[in-house]
Amino acid sequence: MTTARPLCLAEALRRPGYLLSPWPWRALAYLLTTVPVAGVLAVGLLVVGAPLLAAVNAARQDRPVELPLVLFLAVGALTVLASAPVVSIAVTAVERQRIGLVDGRPLPAYRWRGLAARYTGADAWREVAHTFWLGGVVPLGYAVSTLLVLLDLTLVASPWLVGDADEVIVVWTTVDTTGEAVPYAVLGVLLLPVLWYGLGVLAAAQGAVARWLLGRPADGAALREVSRSRARLVDAYETERRRIERDMHDGAQPRLTSLTLHLGLARLDVPEDSPAAAPLAVAHDQAKNLMVELRQIVQGIRPQSLTDLGLAGAVRELAGEATVPVTVHADLGQPLPELVESTAYFVVSEALGNVVRHAGATRAGVRLVQADGELVVEVSDDGHGGADPTRGTGLTGLADRVAAVDGRLLLASPPGGPTLVRVELPCRR
After folding, report:
1. For residue 295, how far is the Cα from the chain centroid?
2. What is 304-426's CATH number, 2.60.15.10, 3.30.559.10, 3.30.429.10, 3.30.565.10?
3. Where are the transmembrane segments (predicted)?
């Protein structure tokens, strides 16, 4: 089963029907569930941050900073740094559950590697950075957003508020009659969709930062380029092509030549007005054309579905044949070169085959995005991960095929999953 529905809030925001879809409500739920987490973290940071600001202000005014304040700041800073790797475990665990509201792509599963790893591993300190982001930066964005929402609600409610007071302050002016407040109320109503959309942008930005900090493989093996050798691919291809040509020359071609000669002699012996003359002529012509067709097959094999359906349609056909549910998102603009289409098709075919055979996944996704003269192909799954190009030839063969068109293949597959195969193919004509 395939569909082109967006996988994350950032994609949904670019769709014309965003405001009428469930995504705004999912964004609001994501923002609201952030408030208690970010609030607790913000209070904790303020305990140290407020005295720090006081010390900085005193230093700027050339006033001496009292020793108790310096000691408090030192102890507080050390306490925050010492506890942050542990506190971030709970914070990121909650985030991994919540991010599904705005991004359907799974994050790498958390694996406990011991207390020492929490202070030495790069992945742990990325989680710490995410925790500080939630407690220090996100509340500022929420405060501004809340102020804008309250101002807009004041505009909308101003005709009713005027009746309860002598005058009402509306943004930059005051109104004291209902007639004066009505235009501001109309403006507030018109701004409601803008605010509704803006909350989605805020949630998408927060989710993007969370994915950037938490979406890297937990074992430190970030997206890495799979080892590839263009020379190996070219040599193997040339060797195979020469073998096929030799087999054709030594085996198929003599037999076809003999068949063509016999058909030609038979045409000479059969009168032109004979009923067998026309079929014999057709057979003779087909035999002569067969060698040409075989040479074309050797030069390059292109799946028929690519010709009939295009890359997006052919990939959806592959997804429909998979034994696990696969979602397909295609954003293709300009026509693609045939070699790029074929390469992308075989990448998806092999990657989905690996998902079915080895990943133990319950679902997978395929993304085809064309932008800035490049085709990006991503195949992801929620399986157990652990894909390693050194343990087989499948991924290395794909990297070879991609390298032949000046592209590159990257892989992220930490133990526990998920797995992401990303291929970048230049497609400038």
Report:
1. 40
2. 3.30.565.10
3. 28-49, 69-91, 182-205
